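Narrative of accomplishments. A recurring question from our advisory board has been how the design workflow behaves on a single, concrete structure rather than in aggregate. To address it, we present the structure tokens for one chain from the evaluation set, followed by the sequence designed for it. No filtering or post-editing was applied between the two.
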């Protein structure tokens, strides 16, 4: 059975809960990151693309704040002045607070949201929510905001207000994506370059859900900051870890205690890999790009230690079954694996990977594909 579109779901949910029609609708996509993991908070390059799954927010002006999600149909009273509640509605409150702090007058609103982005699957459902809500609320008060401002508002909502110490990749791709292209973002300057990507990207969900706020991502971020501080104490002058060049690695590894050395090795090798992978994609060389995906996964598994058994099994299976490449995408500790594979063998490869997974974990992982979608 095909599900109704998120726009229809959000609109009918709004009508059901608030007995009126919404005045505006906005949407934003989730993403996968082709390569460049954990580089956006270390000043390195990332190469994400938007997926063709979106979060929709519909809204109408009101005296107070209420929001409802199609996930559970519970209308939540929002208190932007009060403490966070510890759930998804904190992202909505975060966006309200950040917009207000920028002088945008927001008296109140009713919102309904619906999404086809899987939640907790490492596909940036939170950035899609924040960008869609930011767009809907600014439309409601007749303010036009640029994609850059929207991404910035969503970033501060997630980072400052919800407390996930993310970088800027997810919000940026959600706001800037164009159909048919991945986006190479140099996060030290926020310079962006589109890299055409015509083919399919397969997504295999591990079914292991990760919760980022206060979790492992924040720990990794701290480790990276500590490593940078130690490097500087030893006279290695760099603005960020991704600015270390591979020839400095040996020296840095002598200075850093475990596990910081391994974390930095991931950052330095991943930075080089991401730039060459983007060049391979620009030339349409999928076999070469794929090799970088496999290498990137090994680096996440061994050095950054952000993988999980389920993802490792899928990536190993993709390798044995003849895929060009596969790797865990997004923050990690669960989430989803992406895979690039030749069209002639894709159906068989996916089925074999699912079967390998079922034999190990007793359940079938969701598998679907996307093309690079618009923001
Ligand atoms: C999460 C964060 C991003 C990025 C990735 C890892 O998705 O939100 O900013 O750091 O993890 O690459």
């Amino acid at each position: 059975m095909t599900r109704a579109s998120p726009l229809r779901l959000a609109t009918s949910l709004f009508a059901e809960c608030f007995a009126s029609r919404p005045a505006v609708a906005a949407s934003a996509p989730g993403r996968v990151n082709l390569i460049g993991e954990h580089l956006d908070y270390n000043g390195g390059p990332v190469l994400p693309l938007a997926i063709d799954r979106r979060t929709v927010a519909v809204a109408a002006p009101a005296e107070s704040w209420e929001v409802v999600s199609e996930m559970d149909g519970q209308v939540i009273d929002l208190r932007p002045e009060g403490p966070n509640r510890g759930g998804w509605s904190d992202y909505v409150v975060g966006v309200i607070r950040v917009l207000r702090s920028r002088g945008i007058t927001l008296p109140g609103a009713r919102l309904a949201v619906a999404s086809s982005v899987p939640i907790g699957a490492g596909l940036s459902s939170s950035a899609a929510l924040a960008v869609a809500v930011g767009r809907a609320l600014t439309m409601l008060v007749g303010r036009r905001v640029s994609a850059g401002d929207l991404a910035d508002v969503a970033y501060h909502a997630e980072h400052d207000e919800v407390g996930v110490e993310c970088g800027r990749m997810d919000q940026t791709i959600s706001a800037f994506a164009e159909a048919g292209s991945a986006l190479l973002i140099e996060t030290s300057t926020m310079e962006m370059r589109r890299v055409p990507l015509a083919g399919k990207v397969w997504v295999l969900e591990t079914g292991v859900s990760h919760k980022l706020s206060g979790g492992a991502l924040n720990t990794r971020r701290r480790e990276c900051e500590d490593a940078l501080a130690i490097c500087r104490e030893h006279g290695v002058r760099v603005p960020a870890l991704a600015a270390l060049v591979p020839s400095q690695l040996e020296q840095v590894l002598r200075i850093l205690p475990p596990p910081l050395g391994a974390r930095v090795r991931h950052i330095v090798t991943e930075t080089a890999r991401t730039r060459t992978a983007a060049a391979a994609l620009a030339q349409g060389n999928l076999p070469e790009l794929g090799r970088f995906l496999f290498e990137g996964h090994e680096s996440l598994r061994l050095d950054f230690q952000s993988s999980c058994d389920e993802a490792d099994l899928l990536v190993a299976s993709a390798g044995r079954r003849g895929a060009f490449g596969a790797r865990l995408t997004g923050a990690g500790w669960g989430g989803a694996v992406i895979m690039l594979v030749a069209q002639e063998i894709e159906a068989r490869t996916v089925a074999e990977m699912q079967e390998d997974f079922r034999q190990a974990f007793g359940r079938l992982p969701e598998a679907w594909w996307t093309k690079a979608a618009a923001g």
